[in-house]
């Protein structure tokens, strides 16, 4: 099979060039808009079944090729090779230098002069705009007093700076970054009006320089493949890499199609959350007898200490610490609720309105190479952190809606971590429960308390199951109990609960001990797909660091396997969705959050699509226990109801 490394360049979001390299040291470039014969050759080369296309960051390059109507049937990714190998730096420049001895010029340096020219013009346009005088800013000082400042009009500030540096050719981008960091509100206002400062592109610089830069990237990718692929094979990481590659088409589909949002709902929630936050801040200041900056941990700790809500003024005021005291002091609950409201506004209701495209769709950006366990993460916005339990979090989910004539269908892997624990440990009690349709939370409740089923006790058991499965200490379990609203248990009781759990599922305890011993000997652990995580912390002489490493060693095989199963489901469900679209039926993967994959489905085929996708999820791999998935359908993410 021919191995051809490919790199693409864009001008803004539009394809600009394709570079390819088959033999190290010899690369070619074609401009996508100026060479029809060249593009036809590249399309034939990359779509040839006997060609293995090698990307570095396939998530980017595949999207560019798809826009050009090029669909390579065989491809791999040196960046994901570095990811499964556990390299700390995955950028092409860093990997090419480390493994190939190549010193590549960073993109920002290549286009720096073009960027500076564009930013200089942009700043002149900003300075010539008629800006209103900024509103006074009020800062709460540590002693509770206020300090009011009157920011300068940006026209004055920018004009003076530009006059002073009119003959210079660089420093404009750096100046704007500093200005924005010092004047956050004004900076956001300017960029929302004038757009963000423009970037320079290869199209803006000397063609020879652009060609040299672009072809070097393709050459480096080809050389890097020869270095990294043997390491992947030697490390037994082929299956982990294959799973990661298989999920990419689904990730691209989710990013490109996006999730539809309801702007009216978001605007209404923003007003509602801000109103709640203002009321809570007033209550906090009245109770504390002073003005307070609730975003200052130091001020919060001091005020709560003076109220008697914290034992000392130097304590942390993070969520889990405050959970320990919130039931005995309502002011702590006010602080937490205030923070929650402001986070919802700052992270979701406001950004979602800004990030939505002209059609109201939000295109979150997924990263496939950031987590140690293989799970996806997202940003702009980070949808992984929308609160699940709170009414406000559910309200934000209601802003994600189906298009007219469609519904949202969510597919959630049920208790996947506990099922994987049963599979990995071969614990007899767990195997019996899951293979006979039992209730593991009731089993744990019965072992803890005895007697007939009890909903309150079952809540305790559920926290114990998930916390102990992830190796929480008695203190950690107590904090998790507090976070779940359970105040009545102390650390000693939590220690007894953990002992009961391990005596009930002794096969799991033996697996934990074996996994820890393996980590201590080899400094690594793997999941069922071969994904590896290095855990050098287990060799530390500091007990706290060593215990953190051992917890990570036990957690990784379970979380990594869960992530792998999700990616296998994404792979197969995206293929099924594409088959529906080939028939003229709208079925799209739009969101992946935790153990849930959400699709947008035409109403007329819901009764066919839902059973099909459930079947895919539940049979994507064979374990010692059955995989179960729950399906929900609704007009919005927050109002979906279970079906099937």
Strand content: 5-15%
CATH class category of the largest domain: Alpha Beta
Supply the number of helical segments: 25
* Radius of gyration based on Cα positions: 28 Å
Tell me, what's the shape?
A: globular
Largest sheet: 5 strands, mixed
Please estimate the helix content.
Answer: 40-55%
CATH topology of the largest domain, anyone?
Alpha-Beta Plaits
First-to-last CA distance? 46 Å
Describe the structure.
- This protein is of the alpha+beta class and 644 residues long.
- It folds into four domains: 128 residues, Nucleotidyltransferase, domain 5, CATH 3.30.420; 83 residues, no CATH class; 175 residues, 2-Layer Sandwich (Alpha-Beta Plaits); 94 residues, Taq DNA Polymerase, Chain T, domain 4.
- The protein is 55% helix and 14% strand.
- The strands form six sheets. Strands 3-2-1-4-5 form a five-stranded mixed β-sheet, with helices on both faces. The chain has a five-stranded antiparallel β-sheet with strand order 15-16-12-17-18. Strands 6-7 form a two-stranded antiparallel ribbon.
- The longest helix is centred in the last third of the chain and has 40 residues.
- The two termini are 46 Å apart.
Q: What is this structure's SSE topology?
A:
Blueprint: E1 2-11, E2 14-23, E3 26-31, H1 36-46, E4 51-55, H2 58-67, E5 75-77, H3 78-85, H4 92-100, H5 107-110, H6 112-128, E6 137-140, E7 146-149, H7 154-164, H8 172-182, H9 184-194, H10 207-234, H11 238-257, E8 259-260, H12 263-288, H13 297-307, H14 319-323, H15 330-355, E9 361-362, E10 365-367, E11 377-379, H16 391-397, E12 406-413, H17 416-425, H18 428-435, H19 440-449, H20 455-469, H21 474-483, H22 491-504, H23 506-522, E13 524-526, E14 532-534, H24 543-582, E15 587-593, E16 596-602, H25 606-618, E17 629-634, E18 641-643
Helix pairs in contact: 2-11, 3-10, 4-10, 6-7, 8-9, 11-24, 12-15, 17-18, 17-23, 17-24, 19-20, 20-21, 21-22, 22-23, 23-24
